[in-house]
Design a protein that fits this description.
Layout (H helix, E strand, L loop, with lengths): L2 H42 L1 H4 L1 H27 L2 H18 L4 H29 L1
Helix pairs in contact: 1-3, 3-4, 4-5
């Protein structure tokens, strides 16, 4: 590779990440509109499906949108803290929506505990580097 291409390639990849993040934001906005519009139809199915089922569907969609927002933030910021935030929401969504067995819930709790410990370690490390 030529020296100019080596310098240009990281810049191109960075802008590609920004475009992907922008697409994620657009999809999240479209998803938000879709969730708002579908709440009315879900409200009509409340008697058939039950409150728990409707709430689970809406919560699942909302948490998926939050994961999309956090993913866009991760693509733009590219910090360890952003990655941990994305993982928090992904694990929380899995625990709240798709947990089938008790051991899955325990693994999720352990994963969240580990993420809190990692976040605390990163905050302590940054504070010691600044001070």
């Amino acid at each position: 590779m030529t020296k100019g291409l080596k310098n240009l390639l990281p810049e191109i990849l960075h802008w590609m990440e920004i475009v992907v993040a922008a697409l994620a934001v657009v999809i999240v906005v479209m998803g938000t509109v879709s969730v708002i519009m579908s709440i009315g139809s879900l409200w009509g199915n409340l008697a058939e499906s039950g409150v728990h089922t409707v709430f689970e569907e809406v919560l699942s969609e909302i948490l998926l949108l939050v994961v999309g927002i956090e993913l866009a933030i991760l693509l733009v910021r590219r910090t360890p803290e952003s990655l941990i935030e994305v993982m928090f929401f992904v694990i929380a969504r899995k625990m709240l929506i798709k947990t089938g067995a008790f051991y899955e819930l325990l693994i999720g709790v352990a994963a969240l505990g580990a993420l809190f410990a990692i976040r605390k370690f990163l905050a302590t490390k940054r504070a010691s580097q600044q001070g």
